Amino acid sequence: MRIVPLDASRMAAWDGFVAGCPEATFFHQAALPGLIARIYGHRDRSVLALQDGDVVGVLPLVELRTRLFGHALISLPFCVYGGPLAVDGEAARALLDHAAALLRQTNAATLELRGLQPLPDPWVSEGELWTVRSGLYATFRKPIVGDDAANLKAIPRKQRAVVRKGIERKLEILTTGDAAPVYRIYAESVRNLGSPVFPRRWFEALLETFPGAVDTTLVRAEGRPAAGVLTLHWRNEVLPYYGGGTPDARDCQAFDVMYWDVMCRAASRGATLFDFGRSKEGTGAYAFKKNWGFTPTPLAYRFLLRAGETVPDHNPLNPKYRLLISSWKRLPLPVANWLGPRLVRGLG
Questions:
Q1: Would you say residue 203 lies in a domain?
Q2: Quick one: 114 and 142 in the same domain?
Q3: 254-268 and 157-168 helices cross at what angle (nearest 10)?
Q4: What is the pLDDT of residue 126?
């Protein structure tokens, strides 16, 4: 068993392995960790496990080092899922043992694995004490079919009425590969929530790197942009990933029409699973997704900590960020859009 770094010569082999792995997600593709490293100024630490020349496991991994938010290894920052993929426990342990050694070598504070599913206990590195954080995030995934009427009927009655009301409004819906208008809406939306936004080039890089697998949807009400989302397509799954709206979006059902349109278009191209992404428990986004009939599945991320460190808590529900969030909401949008990318690179 050999652990080797991901480089240009091994990307095809990596993606070939991922293509045959049922547990793989959009975020396990070979291009993604390098893209994150380039856009945000971090270091790609991704590795493959090889046995007799064949790939038997992969671990996408990025090293973040910032003054404000510290030093961490994450699989994978700016992604909801990640972690190792392996053919068996031996390959998985080899990858995790390598990551644990890298934690000690780099003196990073934490190693974080963002798996969609909890890692089987036999896969966890022997001799290492892993911490599991649960109760913060949940993901929302639900089957869809190639019949719009059946998908609409699967939405709970009250929310279904809202979707129908939005459809009757005849809002203008545009699906393109244009990042700019959707980014503008998204940036305003996260500013209004008190969060820093990432750079627009991250939107652009996703669209350029994964042609046909990433698109943007813009909803206009009375000629004005009301809501927008950047959507990821993976195998038979669709994931509307970065969505936002203007303050009037809810009143005109722009969000509901937007997500319904994404669902219909995905079903028409053969998607059988709608992934509404992760949300923090107790938030409006969490409640919105439940209203659509999606059952939350808690996400349990694993952490390996340097001695004396605790699980990082860089999220808006942390009380110590309350004043900062309140102040951020009042920033002029151009200022927030200038400062945001300089802060968010350390949050991951």
A1: yes
A2: no
A3: 90
A4: 55
Number of compact structural domains in the chain = 2
Q: What is the mean pLDDT of each run of 10 residues along the chain (348 residues)?
A: 96 97 96 96 97 96 91 94 93 92 94 83 63 85 96 95 92 90 93 91 96 95 93 96 90 93 95 94 90 92 86 69 81 91 85
What CATH number does residue 270 fall under?
3.40.630.30
Expressed as residue numbers, the domain containing 255 is: 138-297
Q: What is the pLDDT of residue 125?
A: 58
- 122 and 151 in a single domain? The answer is no
Q: Indicate whether 322 belongs to any domain.
A: no
User: Residue 305: inside a domain, yes or no?
Assistant: yes
Strand partners of residue 173: 219
